[in-house]
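Ticket #4471: structure output looks truncated?

Reporter: J.K.
Steps to reproduce: submitted the chain below (450 residues) through the standard prediction queue, then opened the result file.
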Amino acid sequence: MKKTIREKIREHLLRLKEEGSLKPGDLIPSFHSLREEFKTSYATVQNTIEAMAKEGLVERRQGVGTFLSSAKPLTVEIGLSLSSFPKPEMESLLSEFCRKHNLYLDLKVKDRCEYLNGAVTAAGRKAIITQVKFFDNPLLGNLLDFSVFPDSGKVLEDFKDLPVMNRNVFLPFTQFSSQMGINRRIFKNIGFSEKLPDGFSWWDDFVKLCSEKNVHPASKICPYHSLWSLEKQLPLLFALSLNESKNLSEIDKPPLFDTTSGRHFLNILKSFTTSRVLKSSNPSFETGNAAVAFSLGSWLAVQHEKRFGLAAEDFMIIPYRKGKHKICTIELSGLMTFIPPDITPDEKMRIWQLLKMLVSKEFQVKLTGISGMLSVRNDVTPEEHPWNTRPDYAAFFPVPGDIKIYNNIYNMQVIAALSALCEQFEDYGADISQIVKNMDEKVRSIHEPT
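Returned output as attached by the reporter:
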């Protein structure tokens, strides 16, 4: 749709502000110069500036001129998963970009868990931007609707291929890819080949050898109060199912557990070393005390040494495959923004500029270097991810033809129910025939609600 002269003048002044050519308190171009530049009437320029004054974007001073409104810093809290995005590095990166874009925002980085229980609200002259995963539903105040911004359609076009339900309030922000990893040092010590055959027919022999050598084949830390222990192991289930008989379109439909692959999956989990109490001495792949990890996030590429002390030469990523194609499980998260009811149009626009900055290519590339994530942008190539420094890291990046499975298959209530049933089999000797039937019934309840 063709823009009016008034829209063009408004966008021109806001662009000068964004570029830093006009700073808060600066005198804007004269009415005469605007009239000449846009080949329009004095009345059109005057009406445009009056409308902007009502929005709080400019200030008219009688006998002096019209000035860009003085920007008062707005407090914005950003809730992130601090295990993936270290607070000091994020605060430094955000401050750098905010200064560069003249946003005049007082940014505070917080743990996103603070916002998931709804105890904090976007009041008291602050806004909240929080990282959310599928099925998170924080209730923190008024949601910012992106559709009110003229360029939102163009911005969101970059993420049209991602499985987002409400694009007007959910802005894709991060994605982490999961694959299998092996500890090369342990494999060498027990004399097991790193060249694993297709499928998992090797697993039982591997577990037997680990037992003989007093080695943990795999491990998981699942305290009894943990509700979602099964979630991290789903990449293994998907790989087994796809290689048995299932198509991707049916990957979330029963029968899923009451199958050869489903039973194999549960028996593999039962051979894990499971810790029900949190202790620093618990065996784990990340600390080098377990041989295999079936759901290893791309974050390990950045955090293996500084967070866990795992030497780079001690581990290798091995992709799940179906035939020639990789199977990549993707955990997608986005940003939801909550604003106070008395926010001004200028403050709302500054928050939108911040959100655009967070998904810009320049910011996303730097963010991947901090976190080990995959950028949500289509135009950031695998080679542009600073952490992609080894041939085996290519396993994390889906290419055309690969199978991508996103983390929105089951909600947390279903995952909790499946985790509890799995626990009954692993810890209490429940009959696997009954367990797999019950697990499929839980999955069936999603597709055939009563």
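Triage note (M.O.): checked the attachment and the full token line is present. The mean pLDDT is 89.
Status: closed, working as intended.
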